[in-house]
Structures are given as C-alpha cells and as structure tokens.
Amino acid sequence: MSEDDTKLMAPPSSFTPELQSESPKSAQISYRFMCPGPGRFQCSSTGLVFVMAQKTELVYKAIQWNESVLQPSGKIPAGLLFKIQCPEDAVCQLHLPHCETKDAEFLKSLLSVVHITDDGMSILKPLEITDTHVIVTVSHFSAFGIVRAFEVFYRFFSNPCPVHGQVLLFLRPPNLNSQRQNLHLVVLSRNVPLEEVRRRHQDSVYIPAPLKCLLFEDQHYTVDCPTAFIVQPKKADFDLDFGPNYHPTFEIRLSTSIKVVTIALRDQKNTDVWKHDVDLTGPGPEGNHIFRHGL
Hints:
With 295 residues, the chain is mainly β. It folds into two domains: 3-155, Chondroitinase Ac, Chain A, domain 3, CATH 2.60.220; 163-293, Immunoglobulin-like, CATH 2.60.40.2660. It is 10% helix and 45% strand. The protein is built from five helices and 23 strands. β4 (39-43) and β5 (49-52) form a beta hairpin. The longest helix is centred in the first third of the chain and has 7 residues, at 3-9. The N and C termini lie far apart (50 Å).
C-alpha cells in the first residue's frame, strides 16, 4: 500500500478554514482551505470531510435550496446545500454531516445526496452512511446537499425518532432607556454550522453554551425562564431549517441588572430537553455587561 493510500484511509485531520465575506456586514460567507496533499480533512466549521487526492485549494459556501427543484423527485432538504469549487478529480469522497438518530438500515432508504449543476440535478446513492455523515464518491464539483425521501419519512411519521439538535444563544444590545435586554434562542438541527447562524445575528453577542439536545420534528417546545419579564412566543414547533435566515425561535426579555439566568427548553410533556445557567456578564472583575467590553 502506497503512502498516499494510507493517508486516504486514515482518520480525518481537522482544519480551521479561512472565512471570507463580500463585506464586513455580509451574511454570506465562503470557507477556504489550502489542502497540503492527499488525505482526509474535516472542516471544524461545517463538519464537511474531504477525502483529497492531491494538493489544492478548496473554496465552498452554503447556498439556498430551491425546493421547487427537489419536489418532483420526492425529496426534501436534510442538510445545507454546499457549493464547492476545486480542480476536477482533486477530491475522491465527500462526507456530508447529517442530524439523524435512526439506525443505519433505515437511513439507507431515507437519505441520499443531490448534485446540482447548470445542466440539472442528479441523485447520488451514498457509498456509506455513518452515525454522523453521508458519504458519496465525487469527481467534479458544483453543489451538493443531503436530502430525505419524503415518502419514506412520512411513512414512519407515526413512530417518530428524534434528531440531533442544538440551542444557540444571542444577546441583543441593551436598551438603556427601558433597562431591558433581549436574549434570542435559535433552535436548529445539529448539522447547521454555527458560523452560518452567527452571520445572521451580527448585531448580537453569541453566548457559548452546551449546544446538544434531542428534538422531535413538528412537535412544539416551550421555554422556561423564571427571571424573564416575558418569553415569546409561548410555544414553537421545531422544524428542520437550513436557512438562509435563521430567525430566533424564542425571545427572552430580561432586566439589564440580570447577570445570570437559568433557561430550560421543554417538550410537549413539559420535560427539560436542554437546560443551562447562562452568564450574561463579561470577563471583567466586576462582571460588567459584555457589550461594555465590546465583545
């Protein structure tokens, strides 16, 4: 076995891509990676894994789905649609992250990958589906994305399984006149990259917190926050949302004097599926508000 073959079979090496945007306030970003040579490389921002055959430059970005193109094929989005640019034959395989918790046998009938070019759309049968990724063989690039088989999904809807979800927190600048601040909760599937959401909330401060939870599609959720003046809406359905806007799922209104707040996301049975004590203060010794530190 050659050295290059060994690299192609090795676990992926993580890399942090260079982020590029059209302007400082642009919500559209591209990811750039100078691949050093053959091997497996995983993007720390998107979760994508590229199995590379050669040294090259990779440039990729998430673009908006056109669901009217998918509908005739009986497919619905199950992940972001990525437009990828690189030389032909530079990539052997592409691993796209999914959010499913179902077993591998079921996923074989549920998930596939679409390849969209200027000539139209083709559906690729996965080479393999792991607990985290859908793997396809590729040779040339344009746009790739994971899709679900609509008929298969709703055939088993009476006995649903959860998907891997995440809760992202964004604190709006305080209103000094009313002495109020708004904390936004964005509830999404696990395979939506954080950076894609952050770019849609550039006027807010992202608050790191444990992200992971299990969520059921088309079921409603509520937020409990005892120190809030108001939480709105009172309940919200969870749907797979792959952008491009990523609006807040819940808004929590708080006094600016609040430094720490406990938030719980609850399901229809009033069971906590996610709970966290959120620190709304900055790193200074007096715990000044994070906006006063310019973070």
